[in-house]
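Record pair follows.
FIRST:
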Amino acid sequence: MDGMDSLIFLEPEHHELIGRDQALAAVVAAPTYAGIIALAARLIVRVAGLDDDLSRTALTATAPDEDLRRRLAERADALRAEAAAVASGPTGPGWDSPAGRLLIREQAVRGLGHALGPADGKTARAVIRSGRTLRLDEDGDDFLTLEVLFVLDDRLGR
């Protein structure tokens, strides 16, 4: 299946984004699960602000790595625990609260852990789903990128 066949399901703003985003255009031109997963993982890390050694190591991993996945799961669990402790404080719950921001980071770390699985449709969908938990502007490039990746994943699975 040629990635361009999938583009009939996209809106003009998606096509515009593909025209100016070289990494996305490359995945669209020759869609693979590995390409979809890598692009979604980079987006998650950037949007969630995961600027740490563990996240950088995960982004550069070239094969499934169970030890790295375990360390990411531990980090995600720690973020969830921290969010629970913060949520009981004076600011309370909500995505724009300190606890909410920690939960967003927790979901991003879990998505990054998913990205270290096998390069298949199940992994691609898990990483894309993790990206959709982020607070994205529905008219923004990140949201549109995830929509394009979702369409490509769907078409690859057929």
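SECOND:
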Amino acid sequence: MMKHIRHRGTRLFCLAVLILSAAAAITAEETGRVQTDPESWKLTYRFLPGRTLTYNAEFDQTVTGEFNGETTDIGGTARGLFSLTGTGTGEEGASRITVVIDSLAAEHNGSLAGRSIDAGGAVGKPFSMTMTPRGTISGFSGDDTLRTGMGFNGPGRFLASHFFRYYGGDFFPLLPENPLREGEPYTTEETYVMDVSPVEMHFAVAYTYTVTGKEVIDGIECLKINMHSKGTIDTPAESGPVRLEGDFEAETLFWFDVERGVIVRCSYDQFMEASMSRQDRGVISYSIENRITYTLIQ
């Protein structure tokens, strides 16, 4: 809130400004340069039409569930390459992107160890999606028949776009609306809804970004940014037969090429505790640990 300053206070304030200005001028003359505000950076994703980015990605997930007094550990790992090619720009600067999973090797562990994952229906087959300059992903098309057999709940249960649909914010961190300055944390709160048939998942997340410096990765000068996120997830009773409630926290470290609008390297660690109930089938309590790392290779 702005305060009203009396005339005497105004004169004193102006005198102080003159003294500080004179001091700054003397300092500038002595050092040979004019002092300026600290450097700031506005981060946006840019997928130029015709430019292809290829990433080497690793994904590890561990799920520990408890139901009727029994504990089960499941999880899996995935390793692969995926390519993103810009094909155009839509509303409000959103990029239209063609995605190809170039290779994928995945396996279960824990109680599902030994069950095969068949990625043949997804590898090498393009689908498209849209990404806003801040990193919100939507508008999937062409992936309806590109399915991956996970070795349980029937063949071909998951779409090729599964990780981008449900883990898109992990692959591509949501970028802040405001410019960042080195060493000055910036916090923003976001809410969004994810449609995961047959329910809607509602998220409320607080993100804190901190630029920790600059670093050269494979000859590319990048900003090194830490992003801490903490939030809640729930499914309103009216949204479907499954009720989910939980809390999660994540730590993301990413290296961003500001000039090109490209992530060069990223590591993401998330921990979630949640409970899920479905009609009269009881409540399942579980914890999930996700770790994702990926690096731009071309």
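COMMENT: DSSP finds two helices and 15 strands in the chain.
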